[in-house]
Amino acid sequence: MAQSLRIRRVAGALGAEISGVDLAQELPDEIIARIRHALVEHQVVFFRDQELTPAAQVAFGRRFGPLNIHPFVQGMAGQPEVMEIVKEPQDKVNFGGGWHSDMSFLETPAIGSILYAVEVPEFGGDTLFASQAAAYDALSPGLKTTLETLSAVHSASREYSAKGHSAQKRAGMQVAEADGYVGEYVHPVVLTHPETGRKALYVNPAFTLRIDGWKTSESKALLDYLFNHCRYEGFTCRFTWAEGSVAFWDNRSVWHFALNDYPGQRRHMRRVTVDPWPAMAEQAREAELAAAR
Ligand code: SIN
Question: Is 124 left (phi over 0), alpha (psi -120 to 50) or beta?
Fold first, then answer.
């Protein structure tokens, strides 16, 4: 098994396809370690021709950390960690149709997301990924230094409020509205990856409200600049799905964007979202506190 794992990069900034592995099997620790290494190195990894039941997807995900239960999106009956991401032919809005980093609106954001394609449209429905490590690397030394002194406030309020993008009507999913206060959490604008030591920008248009300690109006110019910079085509890769494809991305260094270009067709995916192991979350919190001091 170990010898048959092959890793092929798909773009300059990020992304690699891994072949020679059946994710539905109970994989040896060595293979899991190699997948994890590939994930943090390439930031998003892709697998083809997998057959994952919800239980097998949960079992695979749990090898990387505890699984998150989404606070607003109803999980599968009996398998609450599995989110069904469905766009029905009559739906106008898709889930994840804007640049974002999953769960940055939580106190302890998810480290990774594993998305499995159950049913894909005949054309369209690709997912774009953008390396926030490449986006950080491309900044000037002066701006890097400034950004490293800043933290930003993240919240689900904009996306999951009654007027938010995610709350718009979809036939295929149950997305709850955030009623009332959903919390605001502060994360560093520049995140040092706990496993690679590589730095990445950690702000995103969906969930970052403002720079901590700044007014929203003051933050806007800087955040608009960063959001525009971070989606530069040279930092991206694009994945075209087939049934049985899997994408596994590192939310600490990657944005993603689900394209909504397949009107009248159905797309059905299943996602599990990996939280950090408690010790890792503790380390990350300590690093955040140290950065804020
Ligand atoms: C997501 O944002 O997790 C959904 C991505 C996709 O459906 O391609």
Answer: left
